[in-house]
Automatic annotation (TrEMBL):
Keywords: Metal-binding, Zinc. This is Abscisic acid ABA receptor. It comes from the Eukaryota. It comes from Solanum tuberosum (Potato). Gene3D superfamilies: 1.50.10.10. Pfam families: LANC_like.
Length: 257
């Protein structure tokens, strides 16, 4: 069966080609290699690279647009697309473009160490998986592992410091809440084995366990636009609690394979 994707499909993770590719990797990992053929996957990867190069001309090797903005974060932008591309079988020149795109992101972060939500944005405000340091940190942690590169690891460590220092978010979920930010520490813990990261994840998780329900009912914390969902609500928090039982096996759901 040949999979035909619409020509005008965006490339980002939540609605676009990167999300499709992630789902292919998930099926091939959990059901069996070539459940989705590598030829089919390759055709979509080639499209992602081609459109990234077209838009990236000049400044950054790969760049993408979604709803008129050149996003950097995991949900709609570079961090999410690079994260998925690192799981693909890439040609040597494509690998170089992914690496150079990651360097571009690191070079152009805010002086605070946080990352803009989109190209040219000067608002150093969001520290979420979807927009800001947490999504980028997960991508850099993965890059440190895939490319055995200390520069990416160092940048991931610095992004994790930003997340810790900016503190607790007002929401509980994984997309833009405390649970999602906890996964950055867990990812660094898995990679480095340093217990300091586990303690930080545990601190966030214990806060949620002890206080979230009460603070939501008092209106101090926000219950989320979709209060029970995996990405925005207590579904994501419950997922984190399950993961904390065996921290070395944790994965940001629907993102880390
Ligand atoms: Zn979000």
């Amino acid at each position: 069966m040949q999979i035909e994707l619409p020509k005008d499909l965006p490339n980002e993770l939540l609605y676009g080609r990167a999300g499709f590719l992630w789902a292919c990797s998930f099926l091939n990992k959990n059901i069996g290699r070539e459940t989705i053929s590598l030829t089919q996957i390759r055709a979509v990867v080639a499209e992602v690279i081609k459109s990234g190069r077209k838009m990236g001309k000049g400044r950054c090797p790969l760049m993408y647009e979604w709803h008129g903005k050149r996003y950097w974060g995991a949900a709609h932008g570079l961090a999410g697309i690079m994260h998925v591309l690192m799981d693909m079988e890439l040609k040597a020149d494509e690998v170089e473009d992914v690496k150079a795109t990651l360097h571009y992101i690191i070079r152009n972060r805010f002086p605070s160490g946080n990352y803009p939500s989109s190209e040219g944005s000067e608002s150093d405000r969001l520290v979420h998986w979807c927009h800001g340091a947490p999504g980028v940190a997960l991508t850099l942690t993965k890059a440190a592992k895939v490319f055995s590169n200390d520069e990416y690891l160092q940048a991931a460590v610095e992004a994790a410091e930003v997340i810790w220092n900016r503190g607790l978010l007002k929401r509980v979920g994984i997309c833009h809440g405390v649970s999602g930010n906890s996964y950055v520490f867990l990812s660094l813990y898995r990679l480095t084995g340093k217990v300091g990261y586990l303690y930080k994840a545990k601190a966030f998780a214990c806060f949620l366990h002890a206080r979230a329900q009460a603070l939501i009912s008092e209106g101090v914390m926000h219950g989320g636009d979709r209060p029970y969902s995996l990405f925005e609500g207590i579904g994501g928090m419950a997922y984190l609690f399950f993961d904390m039982i065996d921290p070395m096996e944790t994965r940001f759901p629907a993102y880390e394979l």
